[in-house]
Amino acid sequence: MKWTDIPDANLLKRSFLFGITGIVIGVVSLVNQNFRLFEGPMGPLNGSSIGLQLVGLSMAVLLLRKRKISQEHKVKAQKMVVVLGAAILFFILSL
Question: Where does the chain cross the membrane (predicted)?
Fold first, then answer.
């Protein structure tokens, strides 16, 4: 099954789940770097955080590029692109 064949609501839901998971992992990594809650390398957490956010962002952009989508899904996807873009920029600059 192609990604373009997935219904709009499911694609938006997956985009949100990938994005929020990436943001949570990034916050855990930042908190651990500042407070030293547990010892361990934070590089893999940072990389997976940014990777998950990029996957979520690309799904939202894929939804925006579809031809016939409802106005409600289009607005939600635009908000998702803005939020995930800002989050990716924040986590890249905080490294």
Answer: 16-35, 47-65, 77-94
